[in-house]
Write a sequence for this structure.
């Protein structure tokens, strides 16, 4: 059995008295499209920052493709691509200049970097304004440029923090097709998104973090089987978490049942009551 593409042992991060990530043990197999879910403030972005070397853990161990991230960060970073929560682009460059810079930083020769940059700009529909600076791009355009920069070197693992936020429907479809092709070619994708319909459509496996702790991990079918008994018999009048007997639970229903306390039953705004 092959080693995990991503693995953590007791991964922990503290910010003063705040325990943001609490002894998380995560395992992602090679070639998986993996969804990492949780409510706001659960520790998703903090975990991704640690997995990509942007933030040092307070405790624990991270291995990426069998390499200890702390012991050999350069080897790891050469093999991963990242679209972070804050895009951190160089605003005073054009899109072409930025992609060429990123490609060269990853060790591509000038010809290859230029060829891939031009292809990616065209693919992302960013080639019609070649002299525009990144700072003048819309948020959606910047998100597409960040995605292009993350894949220009052909990473084995791609970390995506809310990649579809602010991206129009046409571009979103193009990006999803590209990600599926990467999976078909053996890449591993680690995705966090609040849009559970997207996660359910793309991902084969998910993990759920809540209040810094990992509360579920496995295939969507495994998680569905694990909660079906708990939601059985919940009617439509008891909230949105229930499913009719002949229907499979959606990922949203699974998520709400596992996280708990998320149902709106009995909650009303006083001025709308």
């Amino acid at each position: 059995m092959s080693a995990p593409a991503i693995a953590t042992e007791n991964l922990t991060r503290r910010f003063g008295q705040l325990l943001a990530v609490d002894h998380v043990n995560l395992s992602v197999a090679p070639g998986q499209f993996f969804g990492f879910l949780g409510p706001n403030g659960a520790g998703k972005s903090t975990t991704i920052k640690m997995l990509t070397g942007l933030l040092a853990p307070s405790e624990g161990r991270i291995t990426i493709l069998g390499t200890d991230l702390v012991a050999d960060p350069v080897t790891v970073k050469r093999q991963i691509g990242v679209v972070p929560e804050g895009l951190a682009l160089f605003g005073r460059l054009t899109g072409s200049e930025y992609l060429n810079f990123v490609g060269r930083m990853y060790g591509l020769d000038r010809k290859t970097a230029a060829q891939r940059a031009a292809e990616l700009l065209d693919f992302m529909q960013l080639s019609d304004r070649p002299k525009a600076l990144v700072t003048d791009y819309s948020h959606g355009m910047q998100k597409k440029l960040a995605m292009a920069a993350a894949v220009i070197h052909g990473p084995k693992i791609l970390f995506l923090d809310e990649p579809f936020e602010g991206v129009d429907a046409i571009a979103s479809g193009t990006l999803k097709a590209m990600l599926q092709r990467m999976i078909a070619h053996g890449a591993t994708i680690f995705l966090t998104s609040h849009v559970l319909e997207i996660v359910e459509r793309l991902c084969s496996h998910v993990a759920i973090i809540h209040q810094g702790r990992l509360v579920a991990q496995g295939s969507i079918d495994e998680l569905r089987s694990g909660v079906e008994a708990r939601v059985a018999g919940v009617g439509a009048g008891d909230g949105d978490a229930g499913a009719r007997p002949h229907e499979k639970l959606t990922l949203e229903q699974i998520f709400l049942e596992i996280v708990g306390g998320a149902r709106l039953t009995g909650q009303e705004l006083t001025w709308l009551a």
The two ends are 57 Å apart (CA to CA). The mean pLDDT is 89.
